[in-house]
TrEMBL record:
It comes from the Eukaryota. Pfam families: DEAD, Helicase_C, MTR4-like_stalk, MTR4_beta-barrel. It comes from Theobroma cacao (Cacao). SUPFAM superfamilies: P-loop containing nucleoside triphosphate hydrolases. This is RNA helicase.
Length: 741
């Protein structure tokens, strides 16, 4: 194996990984033929020599185990599982990257069985308390000698296998816990959680602080830079680290799209992962056929229109129709994913007319519920969060999100596993590792708030949640239903459903918590500089330096070839642009005089609004009133005290009333809402020739959204810009302007 040159003289890159592919095999499904292939790579530190018996363990580049198994399975292991087991038997770290429900847990169980066989201790970490609780129950049933440490609960802390959250492990490492001296293996479940902006640093610090003698098992959803991750582990701990990658999905998925307000499902990606362009075009046509005029009718109660995600009556009826259809066609259990707690609860409550459980199942649910709440105080059992849940659970409906009481979350998980919950309304945290597959998964929206803006969910996020559809050995295929309320680009949908998973990018930062713990450690040998130097963030940065250097050199060469001629023309052009802007400003100040502009401010007129440097774009006039209110902006009453009530495209959560934040336009990639905002005359920067129909009642959200669709359609029809009223038309023929001060 060739050794790559060291980067910047600071570190040596691990040897070039070897790639081996397993032969294709027939799938267990009789209805399809699928090649179960896996890719194996290994990162090896410089100068490392393996001493393993090749007849039993194979080679570093082709691990094959021919010895006695520490654990036997009732089923035949998939190729990626066999290769992973061979890596574990070599006593070497391994990263297993596979789809949800592919069978990564079998690899973790084998590592635990090895530790028990060799009289060693093992730690199993997970990102969530709910996942830790579930893993504890599963592993305790399998191995008995298992403990749990989550911060809320501590059970059997001296057990050979300890299940804990990653934060607990980091705390043990900071304290120098004696337990770690007996540990041979640490299993990191859902390691792709390391890219989380808030908690990702916990995983990095835990890996950095682990003693080199401890071997690690990393379980991850599919990620595109798995090799880079194992190179970091190899560089950090000076030990070989394998990566076993497979994109095999045990149960194929069918992806449907449901247009909100529509009446049908469109199969856009079939079980062979082929995009059905014909169905996608029919989906797009369904939006075009229902014109804004039809939506206006829906606002008046004459027909159903599309609505924004969640919260509206139309959105609720859409969810109701889908869930009812799923139950009628025996596609349950179903998980309905929403991106807010309130939306989960709203959708669950909208199912009040549906009942999915038999009387026998209702009795079982009630008995389990009564037993579960016995651990609570008498007064706590009367809490609304407890009492309101039982009627839902008895009908086979449940809610699962981080805001629920722990006892309720565990109860919901238990009932779902037992098949007593047919429809579960959950946030995306439910998809994080919990082994609770369903037959069908529904997405109430394809956009989520990430702390900065509303964006389309990424391919990795979609894969994680959609992977809950399809139960291995029970369903021939899983079903995913995506609800959308506006036209969607084909490439956007394709990237989300069929795109490659996002790479694992470090979000490492040195927090005050970390610094204080480093200062107070008994050993005092690990400094903040050591942590930064060994972080995955620094590793990725150093690895990218050569490419960045090449780009800088290329740009410098291009800059050297630039011709400096034409600077005078550029300066003159800039000067003219400034003069034009000044003239337009003076012109609009005359146009917006009440005696000139009020005649044209009819309801439905499109006007452009600008507040300082904030461009609101085109809005629609609703009404003009004369009142002393300041309205939007703090300008003096130049407009004669007239206020133009205007429908403007606002950021979600904005409103014209004082109880909510001041209205502001949405970010470029953000899906906004239409609100009536009071605007002073001086803030009107342009008037369009176009007027559109507006419904008499703008209180329903779908009525306001129909106006947004109409404005967006006009923007598509006039790509060069909406036609504006000529100043001559507004009786400005006698005005003269000078650019002088």
């Amino acid at each position: 194996m060739e050794e790559e040159p060291a980067a910047l003289g600071k570190r040596k890159s691990p040897e070039k990984p070897h790639v081996t592919e397993t032969p294709s095999q027939e799938s267990a499904s009789k209805r399809r033929s699928l090649a179960r292939t896996c890719v194996h790579e290994v990162a090896v530190p410089s100068g490392y020599t393996s001493i393993k018996d090749e007849s039993i363990h194979g080679t570093l580049s082709n691990p094959v185990y021919n010895g006695d198994m520490a654990k036997t399975y009732k089923f035949e292991l998939d190729p990626f599982q066999r290769v992973s087991v061979a890596c574990l038997e070599r006593n070497e770290s391994v990263l297993v990257s596979a789809h949800t429900s592919a069978g990564k847990t079998a690899v973790a169980e084998y590592a635990i069985a090895m530790a028990f066989r060799d009289k060693q201790r093992v730690i199993y970490t997970s990102p969530l308390k709910a996942l830790s609780n579930q893993k504890y129950r599963e592993l305790h049933h399998e191995f008995q000698d298992v403990g749990l440490m989550t911060g809320d609960v501590t059970l059997s802390p001296n057990a050979s296998c300890l299940v804990m959250t990653t934060e607990i492990l980091r705390g043990m490492l900071y304290r120098g816990s004696e337990v770690l001296k007996e540990v041979a293996w640490v299993i990191f479940d859902e390691i792709h959680y390391m890219k989380d902006r808030e908690r990702g640093v916990v995983w990095e610090e835990s890996i950095i602080f682990l003693p080199p003698a401890i071997k690690m098992v990393f379980l991850s959803a599919t990620m595109s830079n798995a090799t880079e991750f194992v190179e970091w582990i190899c560089h950090l701990h000076k030990q070989p680290c394998h990566v076993v990658y497979t994109d095999f999905r045990p149960t194929p998925l069918q992806h449907y799209v449901f247009p909100m307000g529509g009446s049908g499902l469109y199969l856009v990606v079939d079980e062979n992962e082929q995009l059905r362009e014909d169905n996608f075009m029919k989906l797009q046509d369904s939006f075009i056929k229902q014109r804004p005029g039809d939506l206006n009718k829906s606002a008046n109660g004459k027909s159903s229109g599309r609505s924004a995600k969640g919260g509206s009556a139309s959105g609720g009826s859409d969810i109701y129709k889908i869930v009812k259809m799923i139950m009628e066609r025996k596609f349950h259990p179903v998980i309905v994913f929403s991106f807010s707690r309130r939306e989960c609860e709203y959708h669950a409550m909208s199912m009040s007319k549906l009942d999915f459980n038999t009387q026998e199942e209702k009795d079982d649910v009630e008995q389990v519920f009564r037993n579960a709440v016995l651990c609570l105080n008498e007064e706590d059992r009367c809490l609304p969060a407890i009492e309101l849940m039982l009627p839902l659970l008895m009908r086979g409906i449940a809610v699962h999100h981080s805001g629920l009481l722990p006892v309720i979350k565990e109860l919901v998980e238990l009932l779902f596993q037992e098949g007593l919950i047919k429809a579960l309304f959950a946030t995306e945290t439910f998809a994080m590792g919990l082994n609770m597959p369903a037959k069908t998964v529904v997405f109430t929206s394809v956009k989520k708030w990430d702390g900065d803006s509303h964006r389309y969910i990424g391919s990795g996020e979609y894969i994680q949640m959609s992977g809950r559809a399809g139960r291995r050995g029970k369903d021939e295929r899983g079903i995913c239903i995506i609800m959308i309320d506006e036209q969607m680009e084909m490439n956007t949908l394709k990237d989300m459903v069929l795109g490659k998973p996002a790479p694992l990018v470090s979000t490492f930062r040195l927090s005050y918590y970390s610094i204080l713990n480093l200062m107070s450690r008994a050993e005092g040998q690990i400094t903040a500089e050591h942590v930064i130097r060994n972080s995955f963030h620094q590793f990725q940065y150093e690895k990218a330096l050569p490419d960045i250097g090449k780009k800088v050199s290329k740009l410098e060469q291009e800059a050297a070839l630039l011709d400096a001629s034409g600077e005078a023309e550029v300066a003159e052009y800039h000067k003219l642009k400034l003069e034009i802007a000044q003239l337009e400003k003076k012109l609009m100040s005359e146009i917006t005089r009440p005696e000139r502009i009020l005649y044209y401010l009819d309801p439905g007129r499109l006007i452009k609004v600008r507040e300082g440097s904030t461009d609101w774009g085109w809005g629609v006039v609703v009404n003009v009133v004369k009142r002393p209110s300041a309205g939007l902006g703090a300008l003096p009453a130049r407009g004669g005290g007239y206020i133009v009530d205007t429908l403007l495209h606002c950021s979600p959560g904005s409103s014209e009333n004082g109880a909510r934040p001041k209205p502001c336009p949405p970010c470029p990639a953000e899906k906004g809402e239409m609100h009536v905002v009071p605007v002073q005359l001086p803030l009107v920067s342009a008037l369009s020739k176009i007027r559109i129909f507006i419904p008499p009642d703008l209180r329903p959200p779908e009525a306001r959204q129909s106006i947004l669709l109409a404005v967006q359609e006009l923007g598509t029809r006039f790509p060069q810009g909406l036609p504006k009223l000529n100043p001559v038309t507004i009786a400005c023929t006698t005005l003269t302007f000078s650019t002088s001060a």
